[in-house]
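Shipment paperwork, digital attachment
Item: protein structure file
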Amino acid sequence: MALNDPEAFIRANTLIAAAPQVPEIRLHLASELTPIWQATETWLTERNVEPPFWAFAWPGGVAFARHILDNADLVAGKRVLDFAAGCGIAAIACGMAGAASVEASEIDPLALAAVGLNAATNRVPVTLAGDVVGEACRWDLILCGDVCYEAPMTGHIMPWLTAMAAVAEVWIADPGRAYLPKSGLAAFGSYRIETTLELEDRTARDVTLYRLAGD
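Attachment content:
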């Protein structure tokens, strides 16, 4: 069902709820009451489903959403990309804050479907895109929430993001992941974001917002 009808799969495995600290946005999220929360890796593999990162509001995206909704002038009138958008919470916040256009990119088709459903739930227009790494810049602001959690991922995206930072603003929201670059970042905000022991090894994460320097 996931490939044939991704929206039906998402609706069957999530509940509509608000992420902690962002009550303005409603999302299709997994919970203790939904099947995907208890799905094993084998169950997902048998159904050709990637890990459901899209079914959770991760700390980086939540911090971005809170910051953007509280500082709408930072995105108003801008062309925004939510890169590796997950559930799309940051993209939706940008739409609510008056961005000129909002694009959300994800390589997982189910994640893109989830972003589409979440955007529709909040009545915010979001354009969906697949893999954009390597494309020319068409944005004023690129948001990267919690993207430095694996070495291969970080190594793949950072050269492109650094090139983008020469012609656009690039923000990274990081909750202390191991592969965040050690240089080229200027912090401009921080948030303590509530999380859950099912996702993290603690009940809250300190998320720092960084501006990436370009080449």
